[in-house]
Design a protein that fits this description.
The protein has no helices and 10 strands. Helices cover about 0% and strands about 50% of the residues. The strands form 2 sheets. It has a 6-stranded mixed β-sheet, with no helix packed on it. Strands 1-3-8-7 form a 4-stranded antiparallel β-sheet, with no helix packed on it. Strand 4 (about 35-40) and strand 5 form a beta hairpin. It has about 110 residues and is mainly β.
Amino acid sequence: ERQLVESGGGLVQPGESLRLSCTASGFAFSNWDVKWLRRIPGKGIEWLSTITSAGRPIYAAVFQKGRLTVSRDNAKNTAYLQLDNMGTEDTALYYCETDLIRGEGTQVTVSS
């Protein structure tokens, strides 16, 4: 069974950083680009970044100033997202997807 499972979410304080993981199983993870998205209540779905199968990151324009970093470790079938200097506007359900499947997401809440 193909699966993508996100982890690492939780409650963080403003200004902190968070690293999320996206672990794949049941398919050849290394062959697929991985997209990171988030769903903010009342604002819909926002694409954050894509990391290609070769490991090249592509960032949404709003994140091209360096607050967001994505990476992958194909040996571990895992992709990562790190978001720095988080604010309340980063509160969202974060999830990863490939063209084959989407994970269920991990909730991130930024609050003091």
